[in-house]
Batch of 4 targets.
Target 1
Amino acid sequence: MTDFASLLQPDRGQPARRIHVVHPDAFAGWLGAQPQRTRTAVTAHRLTGKAGDRAVLPGDAADDWAMLLVCNEGQGSPWRIASLGAQLPEGSYRLADGEPGAAMLGWLLAQHRFDRYKKGDATGPRVLLTGEPGRIDETVRLAAATALVRDLVDTPAADMGPAELEAEAAKLAAVHGATLTVTKGAPLAQGYPMIHAVGQAAASDRAPRLIELEWGDPSHPRLALIGKGVTFDTGGLNIKPGSGMAAMKKDMGGAAHALALAGLVMAARLKVRLHLLIPAVENSIAGNAFRPGDVLRSRAGLTVENTNTDAEGRLVLGDALTKAGEARPDLIIDYATLTGAARVALGPDLPATFSNDDALAEALLAAGREVGDPLWRLPLWDGYDSMLKSSIADMVNSAEGGFAGATTAALFLRRFVPANTPWIHFDTFAWRPAAKPGRPKGGDALGLRAAWALLKGRYA
């Protein structure tokens, strides 16, 4: 893991090169106030002041220089100077005007690389100085949590199966003194039949399991975090085409988010009784794979007609939600790479967000706007609940016709959430199909910082 702590340092007046960040609307005024050598350099670079313009500016001494970046990102954007964090030479830097604030996060994440299989270029650290040292620790923890999500999602399924997810939870438990419980084999089949059914076709070293971690004072409000841990999804007997299976190592992105968020909760010692649940399975194909048309029993006692083996994530989440609800939590949050319908509706950047509590949903959306982690709420539309009707069981797992796919999936999950228990469901992509500053192509944390901001406000 990248040593993020070394990349942010308190500004005590130590030598550092300056970074000028100028908004396009302020560019002409800024340029007019600069010395002639700066104006000459800008002219030589043929800059017009549009967003993305950048130039190396001469300093007072022969070996002195500064950096100009024209940027239309607001002061609160984490990505305001992320492009420079990736591209500048090693050394120390400070903003010429003001403090980096939220942009410290993007500076750190721009220097993170997933290097398990391919070593990156050997570049030295770019250190950012800040006059707000009180923000350093929190920013470093957020960067580490985001990097954890990215690294787990980017790891191929051969090296990231149910056992490896269990190992990640065990590491987290060891660091924070939490209790880890893992249920598999016959107890899983008896107590969590839908988790067992989805994962039963996997090889024995990839056996399905429910991973649980508990931490905190039992007298504090109980917080349940659940992450879909499908470590690879073939689609089951409703097999995906090759193009649809190519990125399915990321189908455990929900588990990665839940692990990262649990780590933030424990590191900050929020006043909660944390209950982390990860149903970890591989949706494989074998002679004992669950079939379309099978009727599955759930931990909640509901029966589910399996109309699509590629709608497996909601099945494993149903049993995990039931277990979480048995302890009467104050709040349940689940993350899942659940539906293609959410991506069709909202694209890769906006996690589809559902909640059964309007005030809670508004607080979450506001938190996301505040920290630059945008979300979009979709409805738990009661009128579509009938789409889950089955003629032979209590419900189907996948509605016919393809309408409102993200909503009907969320409505399926809602049936396993206790009445009057506040609940948030993230249908997140956990993936970035094209690189942006500070955000490389591949696994990414979407909805993590918004939820963390909400939890801090609720339980700090």
Target 2
Amino acid sequence: MDTLATLGPASLFMISMTITPGPNNVMLTASGANYGFRRTLPHLLGIMGGCFLLFAAVALGLGLVFERFPLVQTLLRIIGSGYLLYLAWRIATAPPPALDGADGRPLSFWQAAAFQFANPKAWVMGLTLMASFLPEGGNTLVNALLLAAFAELVALPCISLWAGFGTAIGRWIKGPRAWRVFNGTMGALTAACVIFILG
């Protein structure tokens, strides 16, 4: 019963965290526009898979590493920022789709999943989710896995909206110049997330 009582508040928390702008959603929008929704699915599912593993690991004690070793958090921010800047550069310099014969590659499942471990917003979500909504009674591992799975089910439609939004934008953009402006803007927005990471 305690578990069921936490699902409503946990749902509201996950909706508020995953439907708002952040590195994942900006990149999903850019990917949807450039590659379409279907080709963006591995990226989208990779976000879910990476967050699931991260959330479960946090519940099982990985979050304590931050408390005991603050240097780990600093290193994570630096690594995450560097990788995010690399992804921002990839987005900003992506060629217009199908206009120059080049066939770019969206992020793979594993690339997107690995990014979650360097994504401070994912860590904040995981730490808050597990600290606030993990039931105290019962098997911790089972509860952690169930809560992480439930959180990702709630997140799925929220992040899918961003990929769908990008796909819709991609249908309206015409000409190489418009694509360069769009990709440059999305790259800049992705890079701007570093300010919040390091701030």
Target 3
Amino acid sequence: MTKTLSEAEDFAQGLAARRRETGWPGVQAFVIPSFTSLHLVAGVLEGSGVLVGAQNAHWEDDGAWTGEVSVPQVADAGAVLVEIGHSERRMHFAETDDTVRMKVAATLRHGLTPLVCVGEPEEVLREGRSADFVSAQLEAALQGAVDSPDDATVLVAYEPVWAIGEHGRPARPEEISGVLGLLHSRFGDRVSGFLYGGSVAEDTVARTLEVPHVDGVFVGRSAWALPGFLGILDTAASSAPHARRPRLP
């Protein structure tokens, strides 16, 4: 929940200009602005190669759901991605595995790419159950919506709850690879790519991209200011290319 319309427009214009200058070879950039600036940002970034997503969408196409926004509406506003199941949505707005599953199905039904967020709280980490906890979240999200490799147009963002936010602790490489290794073995044929998010910044992105099974990064507050986002993109582009890249629109 950041940026007025003018702030979002300035950010998008600066991003588009740098994209034309550098191209960031091997990197697919995307942004997920607030609903109020979604259409504006999509218009500024049209043709730039930077993808635009929505931070949420309802599972129904229309109806008596005051305050909600549907997948057809965000698509009409220019979104090609839909972020689903972020930990803040789960924690503060009663998002459940069932609503995540319905939103994934709705997003796929309209030809957009779901970006499903999964991640465990700190107590699960302490108990040594991270991989199984996150695997159960993803299984629930894909159930009935993605049953075969032909349906594999879902992106997954692994964001440990204990690693995100102002006071998050950066995850160690083995903590990331342990969870993503299990997810890759169980869901690799049904998922187009695995991103990692959690205290990712310009000084950590290169080593994060070197972790096995990390296809990309999902960045929060480090990318709120344009210089920070550009620095992350520059660093990612200069990192060694991965053999496997997410399949995006």
Target 4
Amino acid sequence: MTHTRTRLDRGRNALGPALELVHTGRAPTRAVLTSALGVTRATAGAVASELQSLGLITVDSRPGGAPGSQGRPSHRLGIAGDGPVALAAQVHADGFRAALVGLGGRIVATTPGRTAPDADPAQVLREVVRAGAELLRTAGRRCVGAGLAVPSAVAEPDGTALNPHHLAWLPGAPVRALFASCLADAGLPVAGHCGNDVNLTALAEHRHGAGRGSRHLLCVATGHRGVGGALVLDGRLHTGSAGLALEVGHLTVDPQGHPCSCGGRGCLDVETDALALLRAAGRDPGPEGSLLDQARDLLRTGYPGDPAVRAATATLIERLGLGLAGLVNILNPDRIILGGLHRALLEADAARLRTVVGARSLWGRSGTVPIEPCTLDHNALVGAAELAWQPVLDDPLTALTAAA
């Protein structure tokens, strides 16, 4: 025991990096963990044992090799199935949803999508937290923190939603402070974090989905309304000096286009979102379901057979490709991932979109950037949970002791 503790003391600084490697699926075995951390097998074993004792990971008691593999078999590492969770919440133009998310980006439980009837952000967040607290009571799991995704740029360090254009909130709503207050009122003594929904989508996809392995990842996605973008640089979410980077929804792609809430005209935000597709196809929004669901349903049932839907899809792809090409020229990403309606447009005609981006971007003819669909369900919720998990990933012992 003394030797194990001595090894752990030497590897204390390795606990966080080790947990992040298991969390992101990059260390499926103790041998891989040893190599990735650059420590001895004994130290890696002590670190893995400590993370297991904290209820965060599992370590196979009997190592086994894969069929046909050579060399000494290694203990397999996994996420503890009954471990702690983060409370995650998302507010969007059509309502809200809450979820419990474990390590590995695994959604443990989620509420159905709910309508947010009140324009007062404090009331909406009270309902969000109430739904999340009920999930926690039912699951009986320890909560390490809470994260909130909102469809707005979130200014740092104050945590204010500067431009919730598609919510009936006044600009500058103090969402982080309101979220923290609602958590305390619900009897949840955990830290509350918040961020822009597309930023959090990119973070989740980079760690657990379509962006895994990318160094410079560009994410562009439609929400229930509007368009957002995010950038991950060298594994870290790039939010700029005040949390306001990558407002790509306000790139102009049609100077003669529709007015935008930002004061401009023909922005990606109004030319390539769900409402834009319905409008271009000559469809009026229906009373049932979100605009995003209606637009995706229209693509699924009307493309390519319906000429109006086919023409509308081509128009949106041309505009989206023009915007992506400009971003490629400026940011030089090594991968682009698309979410929301943009994912559906890519799946409808990937060749056309890639051709537009290649023809319009500076380096398009010498090497195209891979453009892939987002792959995670509820990726903004998973990203919100990542905010809550980050203190644990940074220092598991300190974070879990403080949350006890």
